[in-house]
Fold these 2 entries.
Entry 1:
Amino acid sequence: MGLPGLEYALPVFTDPLVIGLIILGTVAGVVVGALPGLSSSMAIALLLPFSLYLDPVPAISLLAALYCAGTYGGSITAILINAPGAPPAAATAFDGYPMAVKGEAGRALGIAAIASSSGGIFSVIVLLFAAPFLARIAYSFGPPEYFALAIFGLSMLASISAEAPVKNLIGGCLGLLIATVGVDLTTGVERFTFGVPELSDGIHFIPVLIGLFAVTELLSQAQKLGQEKFGVRLSAVKLPSLDDLRRVKGTILRSSVIGTFIGVLPAEGATMAAMIGYNEAKRWSDEPEEFGKGAIEGVAGPEAANNAATGGAMVPTLALGIPGSATAAVILGGLQVHGLRPGPYLFDEQPGLLYGIFFAMLLANVLFLFVGLAGAKIFSRISLVPPTLLWPTVFALCFVGAYGLEQSVIDVWVMMLAGLLGFVLKRHGFAPAPIIMGLVLGGLVESSLAQSLIIFDQQWTGFLGRPIALVFLGLASISVLWAPTRAAIGRLLPRNRRTA
Amino acid sequence: MKHQDTYVGVVLLALCAIVYWLTTGFPEVPAMLSQNVPPTFFPRLIISLVAILSVALIFNGLGKSREIRARIKPAVLITASIIVLAGVLVGLLGTLLTLGLIAIALPVAWGERRWRPLGILALGLPAAIYLIFSAALGIRFPPGLLLDWLL
């Protein structure tokens, strides 16, 4: 059985602009991923306004390549200076840095590149088969099913961080509330516009996400000023041996499956996939006691899983219009900005675009293996760029990115306010990703709920007659109640033990 | 001392009350036009959810002792002020001049004292932004009152 949509691969692989942008996105992704504080979500948010100057296929290919390569890039600084360039690479530092301290930095980087590339390729192949399949199922979805699916996606926010399920749900609701600003499409009534004409069309999500991701991080970096980083120098990039590859092949395959599955779940991203990938690598290892001291499987496990999550996250994003991760939410927004509505009908209307994105991701995953191996030594030096010079440049890009979309100073103020608010929220344990998810899904949730209630003649019990919607709402309830139930059981168990 | 979550929950509840009050100012729409889903319906539903979750946050905080957090450094407040100042200055000085000034002010506020890289950044950053975004992509940045007055 061949790969589906192979006929759409040729235009991608023969278009010099697309190839050039994929290479640019791959290199930029590795660089951004390698810089502590900068994430692929932030870079995509910054690039999004400028991608509007491109056709959809090259634009989304650029963003998708950046997404894939950015997840790998984080491992470079995680291994070399024990500072993960991005949260998904945090687990890689557990064993990658001890390997570097032992003089095996090249081996660790080589395994990270191979595992990341393998995980990414595996997940894109799954994406090629699963997305059209999922889209076919979604053809039968009506407004109640879409509403229930979006609620399920938002409910998963409760489980992305064990410490703050309530805060994540509040963040998601805050995003939904921001999405209500502007003219209500059903009645034409202005909501929360305060007489500002520019707000009639609503708050555009791009300035908000630039603010929440980039300006918030700029302020967080100001709080971290003066903290020194300790690292080891990379003497040589030595490819891992065949023995190394034989040793980690099972770990890579297992983590690729885990990462893809975690990525497919709405809201669950690469960070959780990497943590589970690391834990499973340790659980299956013959030498679990070596983990934390420089076990090669401890690098391969999380790296294969976090990159596999990128392809997995694109499955619900493209097939259903429900983002699989924060970065996928930004890409979903990018598709919307290009006038495309991700979902099952996109497979009929724009198959070339969708398969173009799939093959761009496939190519990016192959490319960064070579870029990562050949350029690791150079990329490791990127972390030496002084933050005093890097962050003003990032701020200038935030400014231009927010302004460039509508060429409106109001958007610049929205970006700044979102950044300041994001910093205050982050200090109190609220992550930016749930707000973005709520904001991106806001329109879908409100319109599908309104349509459902009209269909059901205002009777909420109408959902009981829709089995698919009922399943999603049931899963959403489990997802929301899981954390408090587990915590309550945890509180009860020691008491029972004491009384026994 | 109570855990910070308790106070955050109380602040959120107060915000919910304010936002709910704002929804009372929405114009009334006949039921026929709104198809029984008035413009206040969805915002109020979300506000109610946030209020419920805020109460959960308050109770969550009551069971925990206060968390010790690092104080906000002056550099954060200065950076935030520079960000806001940039928004104010852009209308007066224009985008490129403002970004040039920010390229000096922000690094200096963060302790950078090497004047050569600072000079290169202050001149190079607006120049690069002009070439890439204005000349190549055609974005028209606000010239600012100063340039308007000079021309």
Entry 2:
Amino acid sequence: MKYKLKTNDLDELIKLAQNGDMEALEEIIKRQQKTVFATLYYLNASNDEIFDLTQEVLFKVAKNIKKLKNPRTFKSWLNQIIVNQFYDSLRKKKKNDTKVFLDDENDAKNKFEVPDFASNPYQKALDKELEKVIKASIRRLPSPFRLAIVMRELQGLSYEEIAKITNSNIGTVKSRIARARLKLQEYLKPYIN
Amino acid sequence: MLKGNLTCEDISKLILPYIDDKLSQSTKNRVALHLRNCPFCMEKYRVIKTLFESIRQKEILRMKKFRQFRLLSAFCDNEVSKDMSDKIQGTLENSQTLTLKVHKIRTLGKVLNYGFEKTFSDVNLSFEKGVMTRVKKQGLIDKVKDFLSSCVLSQ
């Protein structure tokens, strides 16, 4: 690790970054980029803009880190930025009168390559198929359900945090997550039975 | 087919709000009076009411099932109170159906997380350099702006 301080503690890195330590800030960006990218990917940002959106979110994190009052709420704060950025992009798309959500066929034409990882070719094929099915299933969900389930399963946020981020109440979040699960159980039936 | 003040045609229009109890008391009485005296409308009313009742029952059952699933879903996320959690835990011990539902929710979670991990485990991203360059540039711009505004103020 290039980082000079031997700390793995995110809270500590945040405090350092808030005090102007640029290396700590860089380390935070480095650590968070994958989760930001993954979240936007599953929220169904189009593949064209996913890199731009990730960069924009990370820039906002870096620029506004001093405004974060409690480092313990970082995850929730980060997701608020992701969600705002995502909705901004949807609003811009609507203005331009383009289709908001790509369906799978369109998506397949415009797919960035996800590298292979498993050494066993059979396993590799299975993983690839499963990943494809999961992605397609999540993207089929209506956006409020998709947002809730991605925030819960991918980001591990609490219902209260999701309610705050999506400007709704806990009961609504509970229902959205349950509905998303019912739908996903249906779409992914062969994999979970 | 005229009975009382209402015609059979009137009844056709009023039958749904009558079943839904959306009519004023006086109109309700007039519809009831017509139905008592007109076997044709009464039969129609019975058929529609039975159909509506069965739809309503199905809807109630569907809602009940969903409320149960919603509770189990929140339970799997540790988002229910301690009392409720103990209660569900107790029920699960005696119900295979509910245990299977919980198992499916948890399996779905595992499948999703497996997919998430697989998708991004080997993706190499390096946004940090670009972001830091932008942050530094922004910092410089802010400094220049501050300097210029302080010059304006001192004049």
